[in-house]
């Protein structure tokens, strides 16, 4: 009999004495699972029945939250099979006989402070709005040092990195009322530092803002005004590479091997030649972005100074790290340690476009830009996965992580690097389902500017058109949906719990979100036919139920409800 999943089980310290344990067993074999545990010296053994949590593919997942007497945790599992027999699952595998816990237990030897992942206090109810500063809003400034293109997309071909529309800090500040009307409570700005391009990912001076955006004083005013209005701000830090105008790279160009910054880069031959690009770069030969070596201690020291500067002088609330998957992992750990020691409540997000197990162990980022879960959901919307496959892949991925940490994933459905959601799905109704996923799945939702009014745009750079400000061109239906979803996300305890359960009923993908006081079900039907589902749940008996689509409230007495989902629609069922 196989009762062991490839990852066997997981354990997380939620506090010094509180542990969260998950066990995967093969479906259909097990009647109950009991966790046997104690302090690993004391051996005053306790037993707790684990809760059946959910099915994932051909496995069942059991969980337990337990309070131990000390931070020293020894544990094993007693598995009762359907035929009434028992197995012990201990550190050696499956056993017939129970031994003294001292000899056979798994161990979490000691829960040190560093083992306990804490999310920033403001993560709950946070809704982030991503802004590409050059394309958001031009402030009232009349004279500009650069030729600006017309704001209106139709008047120029492709909004590439050499096209400047002149969006600036003043423009963002002018739109604070818009942020409030939409309901978001954080903004994430793609890079604002001095750079030659309009995307500003090739940074020439990390201690200065790009003059086209405004001055540092204006940036500080922006941060202060945002804070006064309850809106946080996250900056984008590019530490994988620099611009060619960055002082250290310039010094290497000038002094070659004699430069004290020579070891900061990976130079392939001398003299360094920007036309040839004879140095390691971002991606394939992006000459404007020489890759910098983040394993180098001096490079780390320099970038840490940069981070501390923006944190301490400007009081920003978090950072997003560009190309985070290529940064030295010890550098990332150092960033976390040093920054959280200065300001505990900051959000650290890595840009990782693929599965992120290696970056989400609690000692590096709080979260990543969650492209992965979105990709799974998008494939379901587009019919590449059925609901069963999608729910399995989503759950299988999520259940690799500490549930508290998974609440800090920055959930998105598009960004400045991807096609816009409406263009990708080619269908407004599906884009609205994507918005519902975005605002209801476990994590912190991030909305890419303009998606909330139904903007379109193909791959980079077309997804970076100037924000449309003429209200008559806004799609009000989409905007109202976002507004209502944001409001729900900010007020629902269930949508902010460290918990979700993905499951399917026919080809309807469902999420269950649950807190002490409410349960929210989210049901999706992206298909072209009507689907009727019967949702069985012990939580809905004698409870008040509200349907998000109609805002209708009913008092329910049975243990199931029927929900009719018209083609390409969804329903959010709020149970209180
Ligand atoms: C230009 C082209 C792009 C091209 C890229 C790489 O426009 O079409 O893909 O070069 O050759 C910034 C600018 C981009 C510019 C780039 C280089 O914003 O417009 O793009 O500089 O000049 C990968 C990385 C990921 C990266 C994306 C763009 O994993 O880290 O590519 N994202 C960050 C930022 C970008 C920024 C940079 C990095 C550089 O968010 O805005 O780009 O600082 C597949 C591949 C992935 C690839 C992904 C997306 O999934 O497997 O490796 O991601 O496609 O392209």
Automatic annotation (TrEMBL):
UniProt organism field: Caldicellulosiruptor hydrothermalis (strain DSM 18901 / VKM B-2411 / 108)
GO function terms (MF aspect): hydrolase activity, hydrolyzing O-glycosyl compounds
Keyword field: Glycosidase, Hydrolase
Domain Glycosyl hydrolase family 13 catalytic per the UniProt entry, residue ranges: 130-489
Descriptive protein name: Alpha amylase catalytic region
CDD domains noted in UniProt: AmyAc_CMD, E_set_CDase_PDE_N
Pfam families per the UniProt record, alphabetical: Alpha-amylase, Alpha-amylase_N
UniProt key word Glycosyltransferase: no
Example of a GO biological process term: carbohydrate metabolic process
Family annotation (SMART domains): Aamy
């Amino acid at each position: 009999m196989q009762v062991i999943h490839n990852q066997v089980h997981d354990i997380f310290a939620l506090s010094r004495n509180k542990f969260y344990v998950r066990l995967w067993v093969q479906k259909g074999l097990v009647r109950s699972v009991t966790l046997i545990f104690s302090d690993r010296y004391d051996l005053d053994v306790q037993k707790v029945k684990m809760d059946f949590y959910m099915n994932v593919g051909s496995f069942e997942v059991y969980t337990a939250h337990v309070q131990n007497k000390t931070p020293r945790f020894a544990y094993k599992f007693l598995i009762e099979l359907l035929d009434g027999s028992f197995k012990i699952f201990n550190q050696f595998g499956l056993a017939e006989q129970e031994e003294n816990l001292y000899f056979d237990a798994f161990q979490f030897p000691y829960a040190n402070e560093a083992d306990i992942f804490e999310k920033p206090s403001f993560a709950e109810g946070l809704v982030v709005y991503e802004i590409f500063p050059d394309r958001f809003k031009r402030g009232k400034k009349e004279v500009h040092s650069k030729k600006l293109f017309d704001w209106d997309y139709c008047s120029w071909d492709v909004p590439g990195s050499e096209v400047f529309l002149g969006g600036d800090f003043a423009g963002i500040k002018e739109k604070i009322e818009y942020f409030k009307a939409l309901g978001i409570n954080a903004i994430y700005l793609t890079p604002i530092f001095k750079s030659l391009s309009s995307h500003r990912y090739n940074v020439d001076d990390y201690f200065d803002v790009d003059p086209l955006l405004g001055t540092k004083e204006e940036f500080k005013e922006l941060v202060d005004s945002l804070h006064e209005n309850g809106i946080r701000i996250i900056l984008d830090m590019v530490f994988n590479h620099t611009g060619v105008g960055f002082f250290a790279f310039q010094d290497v160009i000038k002094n070659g091997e004699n430069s004290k910054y020579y070891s900061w880069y990976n130079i392939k031959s001398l003299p360094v030649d920007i036309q040839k690009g004879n140095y390691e770069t971002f991606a394939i030969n992006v000459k404007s972005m020489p890759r910098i070596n983040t394993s180098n201690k001096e490079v780390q020291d320099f970038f840490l100074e940069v981070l501390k500067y923006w944190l301490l002088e400007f009081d920003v609330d978090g950072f997003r790290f560009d190309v985070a998957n290529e940064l030295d992992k010890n550098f990332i750990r150092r960033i976390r340690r040093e920054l959280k020691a200065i300001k505990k409540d900051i959000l650290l997000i890595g840009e990782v476009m693929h599965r992120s197990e290696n970056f989400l162990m609690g000692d590096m980022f709080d979260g990543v830009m969650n492209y992965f879960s979105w990709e799974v959901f998008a494939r379901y919307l587009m019919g590449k996965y059925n609901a069963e496959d999608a729910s399995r892949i989503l759950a299988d991925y999520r259940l690799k992580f500490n549930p508290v940490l998974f609440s800090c994933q920055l959930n998105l459905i598009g960004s400045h690097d991807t096609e816009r959601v409406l263009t990708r799905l080619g269908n407004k109704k599906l884009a609205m389902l994507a918005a519902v996923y975005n605002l209801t799945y476990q994590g912190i939702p991030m909305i890419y500017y303009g998606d909330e009014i139904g903007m379109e745009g193909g791959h980079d750079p077309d997804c970076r058109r100037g924000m449309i400000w003429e209200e008559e061109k806004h799609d009000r239906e989409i905007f109202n949906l976002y507004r209502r979803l944001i409001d729900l996300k900010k007020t629902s305890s269930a949508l902010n719990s460290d918990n979700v359960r993905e499951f399917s009923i026919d080809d309807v993908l469902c999420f269950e979100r649950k807190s002490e006081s409410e349960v929210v079900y989210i049901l999706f039907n992206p298909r072209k036919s009507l689907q009727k589902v019967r949702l069985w749940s012990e939580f809905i008996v004698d409870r008040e139920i509200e349907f998000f689509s109609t805002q209708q409230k009913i008092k329910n007495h049975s243990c199931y409800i029927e929900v009719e989902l018209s083609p390409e629609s969804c329903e959010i069922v709020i149970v209180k």
